[in-house]
Structure formats: C-alpha cells, structure tokens
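Board work, copied verbatim: Serine protease
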Amino acid sequence: MAATPSQAAPGPHQLPGSSPGWLAHAHRVGTPAANAAVNARVYLAPNGGFSALQSFAQSVSTPGSANYGRYLTPAQYHAQFDASPATIAAVKQWLTSAGFKVTGTEAQARYVEISGTVAAAQQAFGASIGTFTHDDITVQAPTGPLSVPGGLASAVLSISGVDTTPEVNAPATTKPSPPPAGFRNGKPCSAAYGDSSSATGPDGTALPKYNGTTLPFAVCGYTGKQLRTAYEAGVHGLTGRGVTVAIVDAYASPTILADANQYAISTGDKAFRRGQFSQNLPASYTHVGSGKHGCTANGWYGEETLDVEAAHAMAPDANVRYYGGKSCSDPDLLAALARVNDEGIATIVSNSWGGVGDVVKPSLFQAYEATFLQAAAEGISYTFSSGDSGDESTNLGTPQTDYPASDPYVTAVGGTSTQITSAGITGETGWQTSKYSLVNGAWSLVAPFQYGGGGGYSSNIPEPAYQTAAGIVSPNGGRAVPDISMDADPTTGMLVGQTQAFPDGGYYDTYRIGGTSLASPLFAGMTALKIQSSGHGLGLLNNLIYTDHSGFTDVTGAGMDAGNIRVDYANGLDPSGGYLYSIRTFNGATTSLKVGAGWDSETGWGSPRSGWVQ
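↓ predict structure ↓
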C-alpha cells in the first residue's frame, strides 16, 4: 500500500549555513573525481535539541531566574545533554549506507568522524561537489547547502570538512615582529605615559610638532603592576585566589613558565607558586596550510606569553591553566575548548584569536555555540578578543565583525588607547590608529588606517535579546560588538617577557605588545576577582553586563593626546642600523566605528573598574 502523507518519511532537511560563504566570489575550475577523498565531521545536536540547551544555559546565567547559579558539573551536563546512543546509531547507519566509513566518535558524542569519497558525500548530503579557486587557494567544496535525512534534522548540528578550505584562526596581537624571532622596542620611550618627550630623536633628528603640539614618546610598555593598579584601584582583598583562569591558544611555548616567572619578578610582582600554573596539552601538534591560510607553532608562542602574563598580572593569586590546540584550525581549537568544559576546573576562559569576519565558518557556527552553551550550563564564562582590524573594511571591503567574538554567548572585548600615569588612568579613547612617518623633516600620512580594535554589527548573527533590552539599536539587526573594552593599542601596550632567538643566541628579553589579545586576558583576570567575590562562576557574562554596566567607565576620548611618537630600531634590535620615527594617532583613523556616550561600536560599555569586581 502507498504511504499516506502522515506516514511518509520527512524530506531532506537543509542545514542552515552549510553552503560555503565564499561561493559568491569563487571561480569553479572543475569537478573532482567520484572517488576523490572526503573526510568530514558530523557534529551532533545536544540531547533534547539545541533550544533546550539554550534555555537551560540562559536560566542558570540570568540573575532573578529561579535556576540562577544552579550550574551542572561536567558529568551532570553529559548525562543530560549528550546525544543518545540511539541517535548516534541512527546517524552512523545513515552515513555508512551512503558509503562512508565511520572512523571515530568523540568521547562525549559531540561528533562522528567519517571518511569516504565525493560520490558518498553527494549521496549522503544531497549536494554536488566541485573544485573552486578563491582567496588564492584551490579547494573541493559543495556547490550549495548540505542536507540530512528529515528524520535526523534534530540530531545533526553541522557538517565540517566537505569544504576543504583551511579553517584557521590567527592571534589577535599587533606587534612589529612575531617572536620567537628576537625584537626590541626602540628607545627613548616613556616608563609611565607622557614622562618622556623631546624635539629631537636620539640621533639628533629633528622631530617636528604635530598640529602645533610636541607629542610624548610612546610608553616602553606598561608592566603588569601598572595595569593592575590602574584598573583595580579601589579593589580591596581580592586577588583571584581560589579561581582558575583558562587560556586557550594553539600550540604551546616550551619556555612559558620560566618566562612568566622571570617577567613577574623583574617587574615587581610575584612568580607563580608551585602548582599555580598548569597546562593541558594535546599528545602532538600539526601544521595546517601555508601563508595566510596556515599556521605554525612559533607564531603563537608570543600570544600565549602575553595571555598568561596579562592574566597573572590582573589576578596574581588565581590559578592559570593553559589549554593548547594541536593546530590553529577550528576543529582543533574547538577540541581545546571542549577540554576546558569537560574538566570543569576553570570558571573564566580567555581567547585571543579569531577569523576575519563572521561569515567564514558557517559549517562550524553551531558547534561553537554548543561549546559556549555547555560552558554556561556549568557556570563557565568565555571572553574573546574583538580583533585588530577595526570594522574589517580594509580586509573585506565592507564593515564586518569577527567571529567567535560576535557570538552572542561570549563576551567580546574591544580595544582602547589608554594613558596610565602615576595618578592612574588619565585618558582613554577607542583604539583606531593612523600612522605618520617622518619624511624630509615633516610628518607624512602613510597609513590612514594602521590597525584598531574590532567592532560594529554582525551581518549574519541577529542582535541578542540582552542588547535589544538595553536599548542598543543595531542598524542592520545584527549582534553589536564589542561588549566592553580595555587597553589594546600597541602604542600604549603591555611590556611582556619571552625567550626569543637573537643573532647572538636564544634568551629572555622584553618587548611592548598590543592588540585585543591584550584586552581579553586583562578582562579575564579582573573577572577572576569578581568570581572570587561572588563565590561562584557567572556563566553568560553579558547577562550581567547589559543588566548593570555601572562598573564600567564610559570611554569618550577625554584627556587624550592626539598621539605618540614612536622610535623604532631599523633592524628591530639595536641602534646600529639607525632609527625610524613615526606618529601613531589615538582614534585618528576614520572608520565606521565611533566612541560616544553609553554603549558604542568602538568600546562597548567602556572599560572596567572596581565596580565591576565588587
């Protein structure tokens, strides 16, 4: 007998966001052979559905809710939300019947790994596969959205790997030369903001005024103690003791503990106590891609160094636990985030990395969100750097925010240019820099936009309810970024210490560094004090920030100079090769991001003070 409509199996279900975001500007160059290899991950939905996890995470993270603070342990989370054995079996049966081989299932049933052919992928996912060129690479990818059987629509979150475009992230640091290649900032420089200025350089070069004003030399780099004293003025008895701050990056610096201890001691702080710093590392590491589509380990060592030293500076008695990804690819960083959640040791997690734009990883969007929601269900908070390319117009042609910072379930930390003197913070503005170089005795504009803190409005992630309720008007209806901000301008950046490779050997030295990579661990460290004060984890921080942002100082640009003069060694090491002189302006670049009263697209609600902590 023919099936009636009510008896018929539901038709194929298209996965939202599964069509490659770059298709519109790609060029199709062919069709892969039917037996060409396809290796993929099928990410599974939480038991009970994605919306059930969303509701639970919101309820335990919202002050006033009957469930506020009733977080789950990792074991309780997995018992309640892991995909059921029956669901896993059904997904595997569907994949094997199409010709795939199941090569593994993640320990907590987050995904199923498969290997097969183009023919199997086309049969299983209902989309033709082509060969394309885009962004200087050639890839194999679906020509449209992927589908799953209608009966599995609620079981599958997303599918990653059918599009072979490298899914890589980059550190959100802005520095002249990525260590471990040795680098030293030029001198003279200011120990505290504005304490050193001159009409001539160290070699006698005349340094003209800028718009009629003699500008100070850039700081040598604020020490951890200077930053802590400035932001945490008025905080009493809170040092982060009993709280664990997690740092997630790719790879792992082999000298991190020795470097962090030497830095702390040399700048007047305490080294880590025995056992206060720990690591959770993969068994091995991989190198993915090449050029802008790849990543190598040494480019991430400086990022880890900054993150660990900044977090320790702001919360000197907190435990710091580092989680390294086996590469900078999204799947490997997702695996590192999963280790954070499954251990359940940390309650605040700083991430100083991301992709360019928030439309580049649609196949992994819900996999990331499930990770952030698991954390919230366990009382764990996530912060992400908002990026160092302003509104991304220079890179993408149109304004855009970066992901994962633009996810509604994380706190996006933007950047400021910050004047810190012995009196504390005497001026702040949004970090958007123009660069002038000294040419024929005059300052000449060479980069209208050099770099700046990420912000703006997402083009594909809707504005969350907490922003709408706070009265933020998103012009395109998208998630507004950032939520808050802290020092990130490399001109007013932090001094860090790291083992580097110099011409005369490898050894420890210091350099100034900036980027929203600095802002995120600074804020995570301060939030560790708030967690200590609260006595428990806080889950989704934005539920607190957008309800009461009185603990943040509105950043308006008041008290700021126009910029600083930066002295750089031409060879990056010493005066023997001569000097380079430039002016880096404060909020001088013209972008779509602006500072203003209240929340703004450059600095969010502003920068935290003691009111956020206590």
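The first strand starts at residue 13 and ends at 14.
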